[in-house]
User: Fold this.
Amino acid sequence: MLKKNIIIIIFAVICYSVSWSDDPLVEFWANGKKMSESEMKDRKRNGKTIKWNENGLKIYEIDYKDDKRDGRFIRWDIDGQKIADLEYKDDMMIKDSL
Assistant:
């Protein structure tokens, strides 16, 4: 019983330390291709977030600061044509370049 409790405590510590990591948050599609990647700091998106479709084509790219949109947001259609080019500051859109 003691051994089982020690294993549970070790597992909990590992999960806690990983959850506070500043490593990028990466998600994958069922086919193994990357779905998204977000730069993180203090469990918040900080920096670039990129999302791809199941075929590996980029859907959008956006900048975050403290988990709020802050910077450029670019979106592409399924043919790779740019369909949005926006600028955000403190989660508010301030410019539309298209």
